[in-house]
Amino acid sequence: xxxxxxxxxxxxxxxxxxxxxxxxxxxxxxxxxxxxxxxxxxxxxxxxxxxxxxxxxxxxxxxxxxxxxxxxxxxxxxxxxxxxxxxxxxxxxxxxxxxxxxxxxxxxxxxxxxxxxxxxxxxxxxxxxxxxxxxxxxxxxxxxxxxxxxxxxxxxxxxxxxxxxxxxxxxxxxxxxxxxxxxxxxxxxxxxxxxxxxxxxxxxxxxxxxxxxxxxxxxxxxxxxxxxxxxxxxxxxxxxxxxxxxxxxxxxxxxxxxxxxxxxxxxxxxxxxxxxxxxxxxxxxxxxxxxxxxxxxxxxxxxxxxxxxxxxxxxxxxxxxxxxxxxxxxxxxxxxxxxxxxxxxxxxxxxxxxxxxxxxxxxxxxxxxxxxxxxxxxxxxxxxxxxxxxxxxxxxxxxxxxxxxxxxxxxxxxxxxxxxxxxxxxxxxxxxxxxxxxxxxxxxxxxxxxxxxxxxxxxxxxxxxxxxxxxxxxxxxxxxxxxxxx
Length: 486
Known about the structure:
Layout: E1 4-8, E2 18-24, E3 31-32, E4 37-42, E5 47-51, E6 56-61, E7 68-70, E8 74-79, H1 88-100, E9 180-181, E10 187-188, H2 197-206, H3 224-232, H4 263-278, E11 281-289, H5 291-301, H6 313-327, E12 333-336, E13 341-344, E14 350-352, E15 354-356, E16 359-361, E17 364-365, H7 373-388, E18 402-406, E19 425-429, E20 433-439, E21 442-456, H8 462-477, H9 480-485
Parallel strand pairs: 14-18, 18-19
Antiparallel strand pairs: 1-8, 2-4, 2-7, 3-6, 4-5, 6-8, 9-10, 11-21, 12-13, 14-17, 15-16, 19-21, 20-21
């Protein structure tokens, strides 16, 4: 007798209320085991892989890819009473899992980290960025990794059975794959081209056949640019509508495109709007000679302690800001409206604004004030790599105390940054460029940059804000001051 259980979308951390279903990793009829990854979701903060809480056979996917659902909504149903013969497709998965499972009693914590995908395996990543490398097993609130039971099905090419078929490119030449027969003589369903839900919708609107395209994204993912190029290219790239279907939309130069406001973009819009109209912002600017800082960065890159970490000017800017925080603690505080109190933080969770393909993220380095300079360099490198791959844990996106945004990487001199909600100050670093500068009484070409400090004027007055900005500028002009003041 069937015993069907539903898995409801959980709160994956920090009180999130909704998420988008990005990619199903299973389909009805697949056998799943506890902690096997079954779906990839996108929250307002990051991409998260959800593991199954049940052993059994999938009976239904209750939410399609691309749909936004509230926390607590059932997303998949699993028959936990099904035996091994309930689904022939699931049986092969079990066998594969048993082959790959470690021997009993020998599994260490490190064994819980999944192996990288096989060469040629489909591992969709962020559109326009490298495919993410999964570095740890997904764990949900309420149930964690069970030692000795975690398995991961071996991924194969487009002809492998037992998977969902979603997110794979058809093998062979571009175009609909030829019909293949399975062991029972029935025709196998054509493999689904690998593309994100918004790209699929765009292709449908423009009448483009995804199966006829070769993706230019990571692992052959079809991107928005691929679809738009096909729509404006030869007619052969356009899908021929069925006799009963509506005609394909005409591609009109200069037309409109509508992009759903979801995930990180939605969260960022709400956060910056709230910040801009809650905290009274003041921004001050300071142009400095950063020649000595650039020389120090080059020297650090030669030291064995920084091998493989490639220090950047951001490293010394971060160190200078933390020294300034120690000298002026009020800059590292928050405004508690309900309690009518100013909360001064005697620790620094350093936020670093990161522009990703999913939007603006501000992950933070916990207790950055306690790190050595090599430790801070390592933390900055790991933070950037994780953000690019879309794998920043939700916990790393909350609890920040002060933020740095490096707008110089975009080739601009400076900006007027908006405070991260709950923080009192944010420092912007502009591009470092050669410019004429009076040095030791003579005009010389020096490495010059502009700093901008935005602060909450309810807490920080002009005197304090100016003192912090002057201190950071002085340390970047003469990095030895970091040692003297630190």
